[in-house]
Amino acid sequence: DSGVTQTPKHLITATGQRVTLRCSPRSGDLSVYWYQQSLDQGLQFLIQYYNGEERAKGNILERFSAQQFPDLHSELNLSSLELGDSALYFCASSSRQGLGAADTQYFGPGTRLTVL
Amino acid sequence: AQKITQTQPGMFVQEKEAVTLDCTYDTSDQSYGLFWYKQPSSGEMIFLIYQGSYDEQNATEGRYSLNFQKARKSANLVISASQLGDSAMYFCAMREGRRPGANSKLTFGKGITLSVRP
């Protein structure tokens, strides 16, 4: 158990809908990262938050947004869903956004999103 | 260009034997970190081992060790005394270093499937 929690574990929805994925980082970790894992794209970085502020963006679609709350939990919002958004979405956390072993990212169990 | 390359096809190893999973990387940074993660069929991503670019010794964590060859830009994972529970997908990842605009994101390879035979 990495200490990172994600809910829900599975989500099935229809095209055009909007969903929210939730992540609670490990106790004490300030950084939260979101990744998407799909068969064709592999593991792709989406976005990073550090202590409530957005720090970096990757290949995140405009239909997707995220935020990190004062209690450090984070939510990833996916809207106008398309079939191609079906994937495993991971949240990871680390203690800081610097370098070194202390910045190891620990992953949650993931949310498997299926868009029908 | 791919930053992390994992080109081995599915790997097979006999239980209790050692196995090496290959990873090569590409970066112009002097400071970077290399990670290996394990993803069993249940789907979670499990951190295994970390190697910093300035670490003089190869990293070890229990049965896992990292064969780090900086000049060749390779960071191969060695699993000793394989167990049935080691059957999984293994990902090599890199976090690039300090430079303007750099962030802490991980860039992953495509992964290698390891099957341990009894």
Question: What level of helicity do the residues of chain A show?
Answer: under 10%
Query: Would you tell me the overall average pLDDT of chain A?
Result: 92
Total number of beta strands of chain B: 12
- Secondary-structure-based class of chain B equals mainly beta
What would you call the quaternary organization? heterodimer
* Strand proportion of chain B: over 45%
Counting DSSP H or I runs of 4 or more residues, the number of helices of chain A is 0
Class computed from helices, strands and strand pairing of chain A: mainly beta
What features would you highlight for this structure?
heterodimer; A: 116 residues; mainly beta; seven-stranded mixed sheet; four-stranded antiparallel sheet; 0% helix; globular; B: 118 residues; six-stranded mixed sheet
Characterization of the model:
The complex is a heterodimer of chains A (116) and B (118). With 116 residues, chain A is an all-beta fold. Helices cover 0% and strands 52% of the residues of chain A. Chain A is built from no helices and eleven strands. Chain A has strands spanning 5-7, 10-13, 19-24, 31-38, 42-50, 53-57, 64-68, 74-78, 87-94, 106-107, 111-115. In chain A, strands 2, 4, 5, 6, 9, 10 and 11 form a seven-stranded mixed β-sheet that branches. In chain A, strands 1-3-8-7 form a four-stranded antiparallel β-sheet, with no helix packed on it. With 118 residues, chain B is an all-beta fold. In chain B, 0% of the residues lie in helices and 47% in strands. Chain B is built from no helices and twelve strands. Chain B has strands at 4-5, 11-14, 19-21, 24-25, 33-39, 46-52, 60-61, 64-69, 74-79, 88-95, 107-108, 112-117. Chain B is globular. The N and C termini of chain B lie far apart (38 Å). The interface between A and B is medium-sized, with 29 and 25 residues.
